[in-house]
Amino acid sequence: MEQFPGEGNKMLSKCANSACSNPFRYFHQGKLFRMAMPAENHPESGPAAKKSASHIEFFWLCEECTLEMTVIFKPGVGVTTQPLPPGRMAAAS
Fold first, then answer.
1. How far does Cα 83 stand from its chain's mean position?
2. DSSP 16
3. Direct distance between the N- and C-terminal alpha carbons of the chain, in angstroms, rounded to an integer
4. pTM greater than the 0.90 cutoff
5. What kind and span of H or E run contains 47?
6. What is the per-residue pLDDT across 61-87, written as a single tens digit (0 to 9) for each?
């Protein structure tokens, strides 16, 4: 994600898979993930961040990557990709 000036505004720019460089262009290509992030991962600090227990962030996987993986949140790690179970790989799209 790219960071923009302002109140922590971010914009999707590429696939959430760190090994993939496919750029985000359209919502109908790939899969968009809406995730509630814990307050300690919030980019803001101070009173505004403490008021909210969580905030929403969006992550996108390109069409090719959705066939093999999903996006998850791991405590202590953050947002990462995880391979799909073997039975779901072909049916992911």
1. 15
2. S
3. 23
4. no
5. helix 47-51
6. 999 999 999 999 988 888 999 999 987
